[in-house]
Amino acid sequence: MEVLLSDMKTHGSATGAGAETLLDVAALRADTPGCEQVVHFNNAGCGLLAAPVLATMLDHLNLEARLGGYEAAAARAEQVRAFYTETAALINCAPGNIAFAGSATHAYATALSSIPFEAGDVILTTRNDFISNQIAFLSLRKRFGVRLVHAPDLPEGGVDVAAMAALMRAHRPRLVSATHIPTNSGLVQPIAEIGAHCRELGLLYLVDACQSVGQFPIDVAEIGCDLLTATCRKFLRGPRGSGFLYVSDRVLRDGYEPLFIDMHGSRWVSPDSYRPVESAARFEEWEFPYATVLGCAAAVRYARQVGVAAIARRTPALAARLRARLGDLAGVRLLDRGRTLGALVTFEVEGWQAEPFKAAMDAAGVNSALSFREFAQFDFADKDVEWCLRLSPHYYNTEDEVDRVADIVAGLRASP
Ligand SMILES: Cc1ncc(COP(=O)(O)O)c(C=O)c1O
């Protein structure tokens, strides 16, 4: 990685604001074994592992095989702690505000379970919250009788923040929730603007940053959220089966704790009482996939070394180039709407069904993903669409690959 970083060129003062780092894409690709195999435009599904991340994980599995699982974890205690320091530095909080989770969904459910909902409580969200979050809200409605309120969208797409703020004042929701970038389009929601209203009104605010972490800078202080969930496997390029939960000091101080807290998250201080630990470890469980945690630490370190600001310039720009190319094609309908768009490019192709189209992309050596109406009941109904193909490049993809992928889509259009 040192070699790789010294290969990157920095223009202007390295420390000054506005210093522009140009990524050495060739070096980054050389560091990414998958680049030799496929055109990977499914980073919104799972990013390709960088070589140091893979090596870290393999090394730990080898250590576990040689020393024993508990002993290997003890031997790597310092590197495990680095998961918290790296992730905290990535999103601008303290290590004690970070909990490791097996997935973003698990982090989200654990966070929700800490809120003592009562019948009639309102959850205020958007029309573009992630499918599993929406299902969790419906489950809370079924069990506890909470009410769900969805803020309207602007005509150009994305939540109408002024309308959402009016709903906050009218309903005083028990929880406000927003997904930064939904799984089903490139829309980037104005989460900091929403957060400013939550802070003004003292409302609990939960953000799903699953698709944005590793793609855009995430600053929890600027967002003003109480809780934030993310995965490590997508734009952070960490291993599968990993994620994290940010828990603010305010939430920790106010005594929020998950419904099922265990011997890691609390102390059993007398036969009939327990005391939650002070930090966000309260939201973790005792058992950890240590090779995965170490892989996540390596992935977050890697993203920070590459430079999140530089990634945030290059990655959405590759997506914009792809959108521009696809937008020129008759029979292709681009579906991304909103003032700001990230690196998820979604579209439908006239005359094609979902699975055959994806299979044709697979056959052409391009990794992609499908989204269906079920993933986005509000958004896809608004757009009157049943399915779309999602292409999600990352900084290690090239302009050439973008053009090749656009050419492949252009070629397929004519032959459903
Ligand atoms: C916006 C968003 N939130 C949450 C998730 C769920 O993440 P995980 O699969 O790690 O539970 C995803 C996964 O695609 C997502 O796109």
Automatic annotation (TrEMBL):
Q: Where is the Aminotransferase class V domain?
A: 43-405
Could you tell me which InterPro entries the record lists for this protein? Aminotrans_V_dom, PyrdxlP-dep_Trfase, PyrdxlP-dep_Trfase_major, PyrdxlP-dep_Trfase_small
The signal sequence is none
Q: Which domain of life is it from?
A: Bacteria
User: What Pfam families does the entry give?
Assistant: Aminotran_5
Which PANTHER family does this entry report, sorted A to Z? BLR4730 PROTEIN, CYSTEINE DESULFURASE
Output this protein's name.
Answer: Aminotransferase class V domain-containing protein
- Recorded source organism is Nonomuraea glycinis
